[in-house]
Automatic annotation (TrEMBL):
Thioredoxin domain boundaries: 7-151
Name the record gives this protein: thioredoxin-dependent peroxiredoxin
Subunit structure: Monomer.
Organism: Candidatus Uhrbacteria bacterium RIFCSPHIGHO2_12_FULL_60_25
Family matches, as Pfam families: AhpC-TSA
Positions annotated as active site in the UniProt record: 50
UniProt keyword Disulfide bond, yes or no: yes
Assigned protein family: Belongs to the peroxiredoxin family. BCP/PrxQ subfamily.
Keyword Heme set for record: no
Length: 151
Protein backbone atom coordinates (compact mmCIF):
# COMPACT_ATOMS: atom_id res chain seq x y z
CA UNK A 1 0.00 0.00 0.00
CA UNK A 2 1.99 3.03 -1.24
CA UNK A 3 1.45 6.44 0.35
CA UNK A 4 -1.20 8.60 -1.30
CA UNK A 5 1.46 11.15 -2.16
CA UNK A 6 5.10 10.25 -2.70
CA UNK A 7 7.15 11.74 0.12
CA UNK A 8 10.27 13.71 -0.72
CA UNK A 9 12.66 16.00 1.11
CA UNK A 10 10.65 19.12 1.83
CA UNK A 11 7.31 17.27 2.15
CA UNK A 12 5.26 17.61 5.30
CA UNK A 13 5.76 14.46 7.35
CA UNK A 14 2.62 12.39 7.90
CA UNK A 15 1.37 12.66 11.46
CA UNK A 16 1.33 9.57 13.64
CA UNK A 17 0.87 8.32 17.16
CA UNK A 18 2.42 4.97 18.04
CA UNK A 19 3.18 3.23 21.31
CA UNK A 20 6.71 2.42 22.30
CA UNK A 21 7.67 -0.89 23.88
CA UNK A 22 7.02 0.56 27.36
CA UNK A 23 3.45 1.48 26.39
CA UNK A 24 4.04 5.24 26.06
CA UNK A 25 2.30 7.05 23.22
CA UNK A 26 4.67 8.89 20.89
CA UNK A 27 3.15 11.52 18.57
CA UNK A 28 5.00 13.46 15.92
CA UNK A 29 3.02 16.60 16.87
CA UNK A 30 4.67 16.58 20.32
CA UNK A 31 8.03 17.44 18.72
CA UNK A 32 6.78 20.31 16.56
CA UNK A 33 8.84 23.42 17.29
CA UNK A 34 10.93 21.54 19.86
CA UNK A 35 13.09 18.81 18.38
CA UNK A 36 14.00 17.05 15.15
CA UNK A 37 13.01 13.41 14.80
CA UNK A 38 14.75 10.53 13.01
CA UNK A 39 12.60 7.48 12.22
CA UNK A 40 14.35 4.26 11.29
CA UNK A 41 11.88 1.88 9.65
CA UNK A 42 13.29 -1.65 9.70
CA UNK A 43 11.94 -5.11 8.81
CA UNK A 44 12.54 -7.13 11.96
CA UNK A 45 13.94 -7.36 15.48
CA UNK A 46 16.95 -9.64 15.94
CA UNK A 47 17.68 -9.94 12.21
CA UNK A 48 21.29 -9.44 11.06
CA UNK A 49 20.84 -6.33 8.89
CA UNK A 50 18.48 -4.61 11.32
CA UNK A 51 20.74 -5.37 14.26
CA UNK A 52 23.72 -3.93 12.38
CA UNK A 53 21.78 -0.79 11.40
CA UNK A 54 20.36 -0.04 14.86
CA UNK A 55 23.60 -0.90 16.66
CA UNK A 56 25.42 1.58 14.41
CA UNK A 57 23.05 4.29 15.67
CA UNK A 58 23.68 3.08 19.24
CA UNK A 59 27.44 3.31 18.70
CA UNK A 60 27.12 6.94 17.54
CA UNK A 61 24.39 7.79 20.06
CA UNK A 62 26.14 10.84 21.58
CA UNK A 63 26.31 12.43 18.14
CA UNK A 64 22.50 12.29 17.91
CA UNK A 65 22.08 14.45 21.05
CA UNK A 66 19.15 16.82 20.74
CA UNK A 67 17.40 14.62 18.17
CA UNK A 68 14.60 12.18 18.99
CA UNK A 69 15.45 8.83 17.38
CA UNK A 70 13.01 5.94 17.05
CA UNK A 71 13.18 2.51 15.48
CA UNK A 72 9.85 1.57 13.87
CA UNK A 73 8.46 -1.82 12.93
CA UNK A 74 5.45 -4.05 13.48
CA UNK A 75 6.82 -6.30 16.23
CA UNK A 76 5.14 -6.35 19.64
CA UNK A 77 6.42 -4.85 22.89
CA UNK A 78 7.94 -8.13 24.10
CA UNK A 79 10.00 -8.52 20.92
CA UNK A 80 11.12 -4.87 21.00
CA UNK A 81 12.06 -5.06 24.68
CA UNK A 82 14.16 -8.21 24.15
CA UNK A 83 15.88 -6.69 21.12
CA UNK A 84 16.61 -3.35 22.85
CA UNK A 85 17.89 -5.06 26.00
CA UNK A 86 20.09 -7.59 24.19
CA UNK A 87 21.84 -4.90 22.15
CA UNK A 88 21.68 -1.98 24.59
CA UNK A 89 19.68 0.27 22.29
CA UNK A 90 19.41 3.72 23.92
CA UNK A 91 16.38 4.83 21.88
CA UNK A 92 12.77 3.60 21.91
CA UNK A 93 11.32 1.16 19.42
CA UNK A 94 7.83 1.99 18.20
CA UNK A 95 5.15 -0.61 17.48
CA UNK A 96 3.56 -0.13 14.05
CA UNK A 97 0.92 -2.84 14.30
CA UNK A 98 -0.64 -3.27 10.89
CA UNK A 99 2.27 -1.35 9.30
CA UNK A 100 0.01 1.67 8.73
CA UNK A 101 2.58 4.33 9.61
CA UNK A 102 5.25 2.52 7.61
CA UNK A 103 2.88 2.59 4.61
CA UNK A 104 2.20 6.33 5.06
CA UNK A 105 5.96 6.92 4.92
CA UNK A 106 6.42 4.75 1.85
CA UNK A 107 8.41 2.19 3.83
CA UNK A 108 6.53 -0.89 2.61
CA UNK A 109 7.37 -3.28 -0.17
CA UNK A 110 5.31 -6.12 -1.53
CA UNK A 111 7.06 -9.50 -1.44
CA UNK A 112 4.74 -11.97 -3.12
CA UNK A 113 1.63 -11.74 -0.90
CA UNK A 114 3.44 -10.28 2.12
CA UNK A 115 3.78 -6.56 2.90
CA UNK A 116 7.26 -6.08 4.36
CA UNK A 117 8.73 -2.99 5.96
CA UNK A 118 11.49 -1.68 3.75
CA UNK A 119 14.53 -0.12 5.40
CA UNK A 120 13.95 3.60 5.32
CA UNK A 121 15.41 6.45 7.35
CA UNK A 122 13.40 9.66 7.62
CA UNK A 123 14.57 12.89 9.26
CA UNK A 124 11.83 15.33 10.25
CA UNK A 125 12.61 18.89 11.30
CA UNK A 126 11.01 20.93 14.07
CA UNK A 127 8.81 22.46 11.36
CA UNK A 128 7.31 19.04 10.53
CA UNK A 129 9.00 18.83 7.14
CA UNK A 130 11.17 15.97 5.92
CA UNK A 131 14.84 16.96 5.66
CA UNK A 132 16.29 13.48 5.07
CA UNK A 133 14.79 10.50 3.28
CA UNK A 134 16.85 7.53 2.26
CA UNK A 135 16.06 3.88 1.59
CA UNK A 136 18.37 1.14 2.80
CA UNK A 137 21.09 1.69 5.38
CA UNK A 138 22.51 5.18 4.97
CA UNK A 139 25.72 5.95 6.81
CA UNK A 140 25.28 7.64 10.16
CA UNK A 141 27.57 10.39 8.90
CA UNK A 142 25.04 11.18 6.15
CA UNK A 143 22.15 11.26 8.63
CA UNK A 144 24.12 13.41 11.08
CA UNK A 145 25.22 15.80 8.33
CA UNK A 146 21.55 16.31 7.42
CA UNK A 147 20.60 16.79 11.09
CA UNK A 148 23.36 19.39 11.51
CA UNK A 149 22.21 21.26 8.41
CA UNK A 150 18.79 22.08 9.90
CA UNK A 151 19.82 23.02 13.43
Amino acid sequence: MPPKKLLTVGSRAPSFTLKDAAGNAVSLKDFRGKKSVVLIFYPGDMTPGCTMQLCAIRDDWRKFAGTAVYGVNHADADSHNKFAKKFGLPFPLLIDKGKKVSARYGAIKQFFKARIIKRTVVGIGKDGRIFFLRRGMPKNSDILKAVASIV
